[in-house]
Design brief:
7% helix; mainly beta; 30% strand; disordered N terminus; 3-stranded antiparallel sheet; 4-stranded antiparallel sheet; Immunoglobulin-like
């Protein structure tokens, strides 16, 4: 049988060197940067950007297009702890974030769509009609006569 002991992150009274470190690096007030993971992919008709934003609410997100760039800004806020709750360990990151994506020239910026579901923001950037690939079907030559102007 294993014994697991949960210890606080720090003693209730920090040592002198811990106070010096906090003062030098200002750790007590420095925000923990939150940089959301992203995935960018190209499909036949669109580009798709997926951004992992667990714990972020829709109201804390802002998306703008400026100068051929897509600006995504937001904030991930920590959950409030009760009065008698002591945080023992946390590896979670919180704070404001911003991501900027350069939009390819063939994107219709006015038609960009955003969907937010289950903590994932999906941005759909449609391509212009003229830059979309054209599918050419291949016929069986034995059944189709070659046009006289194409014969050599």
């Amino acid at each position: 049988m294993y014994h697991l002991e949960l210890k606080p992150l720090r003693r209730s009274v920090p040592s002198a060197w811990e106070k010096d470190i906090e003062r030098i690096f200002d750790l007590s007030t420095a925000p923990a940067n939150f940089i959301p993971a992203t995935e960018v992919r190209e499909e036949e008709m669109v580009y798709v950007i997926c951004v992992d934003l667990p714990g972020v609410v829709r109201e804390d997100l802002s998306i703008e297009v400026k100068d051929n760039q897509l600006h995504l800004m937001g904030e991930r806020r920590p959950l409030p702890l009760g009065e008698k709750v002591q945080l023992l360990r946390s590896d979670r990151r919180f704070g404001k974030f911003a991501r900027v994506f350069t939009i390819p020239q063939n994107v219709r910026a006015e038609a960009i769509e955003a969907q937010f579901e289950n903590g994932v923001l999906t941005l759909i950037l449609p391509k212009e009609e003229k830059t979309r690939p054209i599918k050419i079907t291949i016929s069986d030559r034995s059944n189709t006569p070659v046009a006289p102007e194409l014969k050599s």
